[in-house]
Specification:
With 343 residues, the chain is α/β, with parallel strands linked by helices. The chain has two domains: 233 residues, 3-Layer(aba) Sandwich (Rossmann fold), CATH 3.40.50.300; 96 residues, Helicase, Ruva Protein, domain 3. 45% of the residues lie in helices and 14% in strands. The chain has twelve helices and ten strands. Strands 2-3-6-1-7 form a five-stranded parallel beta sheet. It has a three-stranded mixed beta sheet with strand order 8-9-10. α1 packs across α2 and α7 runs antiparallel to α8. The protein is globular and about 70 Å long. Bound molecules: adenosine-5'-triphosphate and magnesium ion. Magnesium ion binds next to α3.
Length: 343
């Protein structure tokens, strides 16, 4: 008699949860999450291939569209903190000799004792957590790395091993490796026809355009890196320019985060914020653009909301439990904060 059916539902649910949790944090890039989540699942199930990193992803696309945010979000979901990742700024490794900072100098070489390698097993393990033993590594702006660094990376991607200057090795089998690059970003911007922006496109065009963005990215990657390198990448993911609705959702999130911050930090001195539609549109216009995506949003909120609010709190102009209404100022160049004191 056949045994009871093998329950596969819980595992699926986990994958869906993970995808949902990520999609909540990284807005408007569902295809990116869809490509990353299966590798986390394979690792969790114990089915990831041996002798390789658990997953290698190259994230491409315009600035401020969520590439770095994706890795931070994954760190948050897997480890409970967006800081639980190891980030290597490849811009700091543009010269051939700088690679010693990464792996440490060999014994006997000048500076051997002083150069603590940036990538040690201990550091890799330290960004995993009790809830998940997967370490997240982020190599930012990979196109800037010197070729000696690309060669080292090749070994990491291929065998999941890095040999350090002192001849010890670091294992990356329990790592997800993210490479980010702006390769092709300029050509992508041109493709997105400045006079007839992404925004104005109908869904069909947008789909075609997403395909073109991917192939522009792939072309640029193939010109820059050797076939061996490209072949070791599990998924090349092209991030799309953010649509207006996504930018609005991101602004909503960041305003909510500010409100939470006020509540958590000020406790019994806390007050409520009310952002009018006009002020919301103003923040959106100031903080987002085709060119920079959502990159300037945080700064705009900081300058136009957080800092003026802080100044008012400091000088005692916002009594506890007030309502602070945010409106666009008469000159339309800044925001006004109107305090309504509690009865
Ligand atoms: N898709 C998104 N969902 C949520 N927030 C986003 C998204 N894209 C950008 N942001 C916001 O903008 C900031 C910058 O985004 P991020 O660092 O991910 O850009 P990037 O794509 O890595 O750009 P760059 O190519 O310049 O490194 C994030 O910290 C986040 O606040
Ligand atoms: Mg980035």
């Amino acid at each position: 008699m056949p045994g009871p059916p093998i329950p596969i539902r819980p595992r699926r649910a986990t994958a869906a949860n993970l995808a949902n949790e990520l999609a909540r944090r990284v807005v408007g890039q569902p295809h990116a999450m869809e490509q990353i989540v299966p590798y986390v699942q394979m690792h969790r199930a114990g089915l990831a291939p041996e002798g390789r990193p658990a997953g290698v992803f190259l994230l491409l696309g315009p600035t401020g569209t969520g590439k770095t945010r994706t890795v931070e979000a994954l760190a948050e979901v897997l480890h409970g903190s967006e800081k639980s990742l190891l980030k290597v700024d490849c811009g700091e490794f543009q010269m051939e000799h700088e690679v010693a900072k990464l792996i440490g100098a060999p014994p006997g070489y000048l500076g051997h004792r002083e150069t603590q390698p940036m990538l040690t097993q201990q550091k890799v393990n330290s960004v995993a957590s009790e809830s998940c033993n997967l370490s997240l590594l982020l190599f930012d702006e990979i196109e800037k790395a010197a070729s000696s660094m690309t060669r080292l990376l090749l070994g990491v991607l291929d065998k999941a091993v890095l040999r350090l200057g002192d001849n010890s090795t670091v294992n990356f089998e329990r790592s997800l490796i993210f490479l980010t690059s702006n390769l092709g970003a300029e050509a992508m911007r041109k493709e997105l026809a400045p006079n007839f922006g992404f925004e104005a496109m109908v869904a069909e065009d947008r789909k075609a355009s997403a395909g073109k963005i991917h192939s522009i990215g792939m072309g640029a990657v193939r010109r820059k890196f050797s076939p061996e390198f490209v072949n070791r990448i599990d998924a090349v993911i092209a991030y799309q320019p953010l649509e207006r609705s996504s930018l609005e959702a991101i602004l909503h999130q960041q305003i909510q985060a500010l409100e939470r911050h006020i509540g958590d930090r000020l406790e019994d001195r806390a007050f409520e914020l009310e952002i009018g539609d006009d002020a919301f549109a103003w923040l959106l216009r100031k903080g987002t653009s085709c060119e920079y995506g959502a990159r300037e949003l945080k700064r705009t909120i900081l300058r136009s909301l957080t800092q003026p609010i802080a100044a008012m709190v400091e000088s005692g102009r916002i009594p506890p439990e007030s309502l602070v209404r945010v409106e666009v100022a008469g000159d339309r160049e800044s925001l006004d904060l109107v305090v309504e004191e509690p009865e």
